[in-house]
Write a structure and sequence with these properties.
It is a single chain. This protein has about 400 residues and is of the alpha+beta class. Among the domains are: about 170 residues, no CATH class; about 30 residues. About 40% of the residues lie in helices and about 15% in strands. The protein has 14 helices and twelve strands. Strands 1, 2, 6, 7 and 8 form a five-stranded antiparallel beta sheet that branches.
C-alpha cells in the first residue's frame, strides 16, 4: 500500500463535486505557482533560515486525551519523517506557497496515529450535504478529499480568499531584479575576458574577404597563439581602436535594496542568514517570525486532533522553544543568578539555558534564605545568630518579644 492509499484510502472522491460557497467573491481554489520563490538563491536562503529555526520547536501534548501521540509528535509524526523534518517541511511549504496542509494518519478506526504534510498541485474547498471538504489534486493527477475540519491548514497573507492565503506575486518583481542582476554579473565576467577592437579596412573588399581578414587577425592576435601580448597588423587595416566594454551591473546600493526587499518580505535579515546574531537579535526574530508560526501550528494541530469537548477540558498541543539558549554567557549568568536564587525558575530550567542535561531533583524552585520582608529584618538577624551559635545581645524588648512577633 502506497502513501496515497494510507492517507486517503477510504475517501470516495466522486462524491465531492460542488464548490463551497464562501463569503468573498473568490472561488475557493488554491493553485501552486510553478517555479516560485524557492528557485532563487537568496529567497531560498531566507526560507531555509526560518524553517531551520522552526525545526527546533518542541511539540507537547497537554491533557489526558491522545496520550499515545506524545512520543509520536516529539520524535516521529509519521513513518517517513522525524519531528525536525516534519516542522522544517511545514515551515518551508507555508513560506513558498503561503498555504500548508497537514492530513491525519489514521489507524483502522478513526484514531489519529500520526500527521503528514502534503504538497498538492491545487486544493479546492467543496461541499457535500452542507459539510465543507478539501479536495486535493496532486502532480501525478491523483485526487482525494477529506473533511475540512480534519485538515490542518496554515495560511499567511490571507486577505482576498475566505480559506487560502494569497500568492507571492508581490515579490515577483524583486526576483526578476535578482535574476537580471545575476545575469549582468555573469555577462560582465564573460565580456571581461574578450578584447574588442574597431578596425577599418584600407580598401574595399568583398564581404567574404572582410570576414576572412577579421578571422585571420583574431587567430593571429587574440588567441593563445599570441604569447607576446603584442598586437601587430599590416596595411590591411588603417585604424585599429580598442573598445572598452562595460556591461551594466547593479551598484552596491541597488544590490542592497534588492536584498532588503527579500528580507522585508520574509521577515529575516543578514545576521539571521549568516548565524551571526546576538541574543537580543534572536529574541526579536523569534518574537516576530518563529513564535507566530508556532502559535498557528499549535492551534491547527489542536483543532484537527481534539474534539471541542476535549479542548474545553484543557487538551491541546503547543510548540515551544527555549530562546534563551542563544544568549551570551554573561547574559546567561545574569539569568541564572537573578532568577534561580529567587525561586522564579527551577535548577533544570537554568541548566537548559546552558545546554546542560537535567539532573535528578532539579525540577524544584529554590530561594536564598537571607531574603526576608523589610519590617522583619531584626527577627531574621536573631535567627541567623542562633543558627550559627553566636552570642545574642539582650536588649530591652529582647528576643522573646521578637520571637513572639514572629
Amino acid at each position: 500500500m502506497g502513501l496515497f492509499s494510507k492517507l486517503f484510502g477510504g475517501i470516495k472522491k466522486s462524491e465531492v463535486c460542488k464548490y463551497f460557497e464562501g463569503l468573498s467573491s473568490y472561488t475557493p481554489v488554491f493553485t501552486t505557482f510553478d517555479g516560485g520563490v524557492y528557485e532563487m538563491e537568496l529567497t531560498r536562503a531566507a526560507i531555509h533560515a526560518f524553517a531551520n529555526a522552526c525545526s527546533k520547536l518542541n511539540p507537547e501534548i497537554h491533557g489526558t486525551s491522545y496520550e499515545s501521540l506524545k512520543n509520536v509528535l516529539q520524535f516521529q509524526p509519521n513513518p517517513y519523517m522525524d519531528t525536525a523534518k516534519f516542522l522544517y517541511r511545514i515551515a518551508t511549504i507555508v513560506s513558498v506557497q503561503n498555504n500548508a496542509f497537514i492530513v491525519p494518519m489514521l489507524d483502522d478506526g478513526e484514531s489519529i496515529v500520526g500527521y503528514f504534510p502534503i504538497l498538492p498541485s491545487d486544493a479546492e474547498v467543496m461541499e457535500v450535504d452542507g459539510v465543507a471538504y478539501m479536495r486535493f489534486t496532486f502532480a501525478n493527477g491523483d485526487r482525494a478529499a477529506i473533511e475540512y475540519s480534519k485538515v490542518g491548514h496554515i495560511t499567511q497573507f490571507q486577505f482576498e480568499d475566505d480559506f487560502f492565503g494569497s500568492d507571492n506575486s508581490p515579490i515577483k518583481h524583486t526576483m526578476q531584479l535578482i535574476h537580471t542582476q545575476n545575469e549582468g554579473i555573469k555577462n560582465a565576467i564573460k565580456n571581461s575576458a574578450v578584447v574588442r577592437f574597431l578596425a577599418r579596412i584600407a580598401q574595399k573588399l568583398d564581404p567574404k574577404k572582410v570576414e576572412a581578414e577579421r578571422d585571420l587577425f583574431a587567430e593571429r592576435n587574440l588567441t593563445n597563439k599570441n604569447q607576446s601580448g603584442l598586437i601587430v597588423h599590416d596595411a590591411t587595416f588603417t585604424d585599429l581602436t580598442p573598445i572598452e566594454s562595460k556591461p551594466y551591473t547593479a551598484n552596491p546600493a541597488e544590490r542592497k535594496l534588492i536584498r532588503e526587499n527579500v528580507f522585508y518580505y520574509f521577515g529575516v535579515n543578514e545576521k539571521i542568514l549568516q548565524n551571526n546574531f546576538t541574543g537580543e537579535e534572536w529574541a526579536a526574530f523569534y518574537s516576530g517570525k518563529i513564535e507566530p508560526f508556532a502559535l498557528r501550528l499549535s492551534l491547527v494541530l489542536t483543532n484537527m486532533t481534539f474534539t471541542k469537548r476535549a479542548i474545553a477540558h484543557e487538551n491541546r498541543i503547543t510548540l515551544t522553544s527555549n530562546r534563551l539558549q542563544h544568549m551570551s554567557d554573561s547574559a546567561k549568568m545574569e539569568f541564572s543568578t537573578s532568577l534561580v536564587d529567587r525561586g522564579i525558575v527551577t535548577i533544570n530550567e537554568s541548566r537548559e539555558v546552558w545546554g546542560l542535561a537535567p539532573v535528578e531533583g532539579g525540577d524544584v524552585r529554590i530561594t536564598r534564605r537571607e531574603y526576608v520582608e523589610a519590617d522583619k529584618m531584626g527577627l531574621r538577624d536573631l535567627e541567623l545568630k542562633k543558627e550559627l551559635g553566636l552570642e545574642v545581645e539582650k536588649t530591652e524588648g529582647s528576643e522573646d518579644d521578637a520571637a513572639s512577633e514572629g
